[in-house]
Structure formats: C-alpha cells, structure tokens
C-alpha cells in the first residue's frame, strides 16, 4: 500500500466548517447586513464578533467537541449565533420545537443532555422553568430575551472576549440536531454535519435564486429543515436574514415592506391571514410577491418567479437526507432527479436493488445524509444496510431514471406544515387509564390538509369523554399533535395477523388525504 504521509501537511488545509464560512463572510462582506431582528441590525463583521463572544461563553461553561447545546425558544437571530458558536467549539446544536409540552421538553433534556440550554422567558417561560426544575436545576441555562435574576445572553456577550479563536473542524463532524417526528412513538434527533449543512445551503442558493442582494424572511420555525434551507442559503450567499419570533400576519407584512425582502417561508394559512390584513393594500409587499394580495403564492418557500424551484416545483426529501434532495428542477418527472452529493437506490427489505418500475424502499447515501440519530444505537444499526441509509419511505424509478415518491412506509399525518406520526399520539393516549386500545388516523381538512382523529376503545367501567382525552394529549405533547376529533367504538378492525387494520379504520371513520406524490 502506497504511503502518502508526505501529503499529511495538507490535511488541516481541508478543514472547513460553518464557523469558517462566517469568518470569511466577515472578511469579504464586512459592512453588508447579515441579520435583522426587531431593532437589531448587524453586519457580517459585527455578527462574526458576536459569535466569537458566544463561543467564549460556551467554552467558559465547559462546552467542547461533541457536547450538546439546546435552544428552547422561538425564532431569533440568536438561533443562528448559537448554531455558529457551537460550530466553532465543535458542539452539536439543537433548536427544539418551542410548542413542545413540559413532558416533551423533559424527555428531550434527558435524551439530549445539553451542557448549555438557551431558553426564552416571554410566552413560554413557565413551561421552560418547570422542565428545568424537574431536570438539573444547577445546569447552565441562559435566558436569551432578558430575565431578572438569570444569566442574560446579552450581558454575557458584552463581558466575553471578542477575539476569534476556534480549532479547525472536520466537515463530517455533526453540528445540527433536529428532532424528527416519531416513527416508533419516540422522536429522535437526526444529526447533520457541517458538510451536509453547507451542501444544503448551496442547493437552496441555487434552487431559490438567492444572492448577496437577497433578503430572507425567517418566518417559519427554525426547527424545520425547510426553513433552515433558505436561512443557510442566504447566509452562504452573503444576503440578509430577517428574523421574526413567530408567525403573525401584520408583523410579517411590516417586515417585508420595511426591509424589501425577496424570499420567505410562509405557510398557506398564514397567507390567508396576511391577505385579510392587507385587503386595503396598506403594506407594499411587492418585493416578495407580484401584488399586495400575494396572488402568485404557490408554496411555503416563497422565492422569485424565475427561480428553478418555482419553475419546476416538486421533489422528495426528509430531514435525515438534508431536506429536498430529489427535485424536478434537476430534471425528470415525478419527484425528479437526485441533486449532487446524494445517491438513491430503490431496494427490498434487505437493501437489494429492485427493477425499475417496481415499488420498494428508498435508500440514500452521500455526504448530505445525516450522521445518524443521537443516542439511538439500535435504530442507527437498523437504518443502515450495506452502507445505505433506509428512509422508511417507499418509491420507484421510472424508465427515464426519475424518482417517484409513493408514500411513507409508516403512516404519517400532515397537518399544516407539521408531520404527526400516529404511533406517537397512540402511545400518549394509551397512557390514559381509560384507553384500552386506539387507532389514530388523519382526516381531510381544507385548511390544514389533515386533522388528527383518534378512534378509541374505552376500558370497561371507566368513564371518559373526548375532552378529557384531548386535554390529556395537550398536556403531554405539542398542541398540533393532539387529536381534534375522538370517536369511541366497541372494537377496531384487525387483519389476519391480529394487528389493527388502518385502511379499514380509515374507510370506516373518514380517514384520507395522507401525503403522497406519484
């Protein structure tokens, strides 16, 4: 075997992570605006200094390579700062779902075991405090929006060292953790590397036609990969990211007009609200839309009409494979063709490739695919087959090589932009002493695509009503996961193997509208 030790000096030359990207943006675009958040406006040079200071704050609290940092709050430019500071110290950063219930936050704390937690006081502070009190009261928690008697984010930054000092990072190092909806009843954090995020950002830049003059409205939740794609793409291009804490129609209209924003993430229900607020044309949003009634809105990822992803809409992806990675803007039909840096295979249960036209599981490999799930060794072993990641999704190849997404291998409900897995809701309902058995289905809804419905067998002799079960779920889960409708039955249809027949439950109780393409 040939010895290439003489090339060893160049190993360090190839280290490059998100922290390096920010440092270069500060050199090449020092006076261009990087982030807008309320009254705050920071150039790339100022943003770089703030991240340097925050990295120092993390180091002072013992955060190093492989340690975890958790964000329990709504959208903010500080989410990006915490992500980039984590990149500089080699840590793994997780922006959690701010709608999570106290039991869900507690489970996340136990699972992710963060060394530092950034948390928000306004609106969601009570739940954060309760979860903290039941976990490790003496752990490092930093209040990002100002709290009396607590470690304050801005005060800590002001006192920190502004000097840049961070070790080179291998691009394959995990950086971002995103808790995905539960296939098996327990959510897991998919780990995406520096390399995966850089590729994802480049793809967003290309597909959404983002450049250094672009302004992106970060109005969707940053624990969603679809929102992060545009945010990171804008950061990579040297554009402006404008952050709002949550979706409020008038605030979005005001921000678009004031900053002349060109890109956004705006779900359909929010567009309906924005049209109502702006029916008299009080706000000029023509930097983003064709007119003030947003008549050209097509998908939540809003971009110029000549952007490739709008010209040819459609594709397939999931958080675990870096978002949309088979797309029509790359050509083909159905869900299009694979983007660079990922390969797809349609396989049987053992991972053997099946002929074109035959349905099988979608397998993926490449540098954009996740590094695995945090703290899930059994699931990681199950999900990797002969060097390929099994997606738990079904698909097929067409004769021209295009990919078609047939549907989730495990049933999934789509409500608004959120994914809800029946197994997780069923597991919650089974904790109630009055529930003997349950099947959760999705029923069509004109506004939200689907609503969550539970078909419940109650235990003999135990009194319970729908409101009690809905409240039980609301107290233990993010509110969007709870059933909106509950039907009580004596029995549930079962198949020949004794399992609940979901198709029969759908047919009998109005289920349908599940997400599928092709």
TrEMBL record:
Pfam families: AMP-binding, AMP-binding_C. InterPro entries: AMP-bd_C, AMP-bd_C_sf, AMP-dep_synth/lig_dom, ANL_N_sf, ATP-dep_AMP-bd_enzyme. It comes from the Bacteria. Coiled coil: none annotated. Gene3D superfamilies: 3.30.300.30, N-terminal domain of ligase-like (3.40.50.12780). Residues 424-498 form the AMP-binding enzyme C-terminal domain. GO terms for molecular function: acid-thiol ligase activity. SUPFAM superfamilies: Acetyl-CoA synthetase-like. Transmembrane segments: none annotated. Residues 23-374 form the AMP-dependent synthetase/ligase domain. This is Acyl-CoA synthetase.
């Amino acid at each position: 075997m040939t010895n290439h030790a003489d090339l060893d000096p160049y190993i360090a030359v190839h280290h490059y992570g998100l922290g390096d990207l920010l440092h270069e943006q500060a050199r090449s675009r020092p006076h261009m605006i990087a982030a807008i958040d309320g009254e705050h406006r920071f150039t790339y040079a100022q943003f770089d200094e703030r991240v340097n200071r925050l990295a120092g704050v993390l180091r002072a609290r013992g955060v190093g390579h492989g340690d975890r940092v958790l964000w329990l709050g709504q959208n903010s430019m500080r989410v990006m700062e915490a992500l980039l500071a984590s990149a500089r110290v080699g840590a793994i950063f997780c922006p959690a779902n701010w709608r999570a219930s106290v039991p869900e936050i507690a489970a996340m704390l136990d699972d992710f075991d963060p060394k530092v937690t950034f948390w928000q006081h306004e609106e969601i502070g009570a739940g954060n405090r309760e979860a903290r009190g039941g976990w490790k009261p003496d752990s490092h928690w930093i209040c990002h929006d100002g709290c009396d008697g607590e470690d304050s984010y801005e005060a800590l930054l002001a006192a920190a060292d502004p000097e840049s000092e961070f070790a080179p990072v291998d691009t394959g190092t995990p950086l971002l953790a995103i808790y995905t909806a539960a296939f098996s009843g327990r959510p897991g954090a998919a780990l995406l590397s520096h390399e995966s995020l850089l590729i994802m950002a480049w793809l967003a830049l290309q597909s959404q036609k983002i450049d250094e003059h672009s302004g992106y409205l970060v109005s969707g939740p940053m624990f969603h990969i679809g929102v992060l794609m545009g945010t990171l793409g804008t950061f990579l291009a040297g554009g402006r990211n404008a952050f709002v804490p949550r979706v409020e129609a008038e605030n979005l209209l005001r921000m678009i007009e004031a900053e002349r924003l060109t890109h956004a993430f705006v779900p359909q229900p929010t567009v309906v609200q924005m049209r109502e607020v702006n029916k008299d044309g009080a706000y000029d949003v023509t930097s983003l839309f064709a007119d003030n009634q947003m008549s050209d809105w097509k998908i939540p990822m809003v971009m110029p009409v000549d952007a490739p992803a709008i010209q040819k809409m459609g594709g397939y992806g999931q958080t675990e494979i870096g978002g949309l990675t088979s797309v029509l803007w790359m050509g083909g039909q159905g869900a299009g063709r694979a983007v660079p840096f990922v390969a797809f295979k349609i396989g049987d249960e053992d991972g053997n490739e099946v002929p074109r036209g035959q349905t099988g599981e979608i397998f993926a490999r490449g540098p954009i695919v996740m590094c695995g799930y945090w703290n899930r060794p059994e699931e990681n072993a199950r999900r990797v087959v002969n060097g390929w990641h099994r997606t738990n999704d079904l698909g097929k190849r067409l004769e021209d090589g295009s990919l078609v997404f047939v549907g989730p291998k495990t049933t999934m409900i789509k409500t608004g932009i959120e994914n809800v897995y029946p197994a997780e809701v069923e597991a919650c309902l089974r904790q109630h002493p009055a529930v003997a058995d349950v099947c959760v289905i999705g029923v069509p809804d004109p506004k939200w695509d689907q609503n969550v419905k539970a078909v419940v067998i109650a235990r003999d002799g135990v009194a319970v009503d729908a409101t009690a079960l809905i409240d039980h779920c609301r107290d233990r889960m993010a509110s969007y996961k709870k059933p909106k409708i509950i039907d009580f039955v004596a029995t549930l249809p079962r198949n020949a193997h004794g399992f609940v027949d979901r198709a029969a439950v759908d047919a009998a109780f109005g289920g349908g509208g599940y997400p599928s393409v092709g």
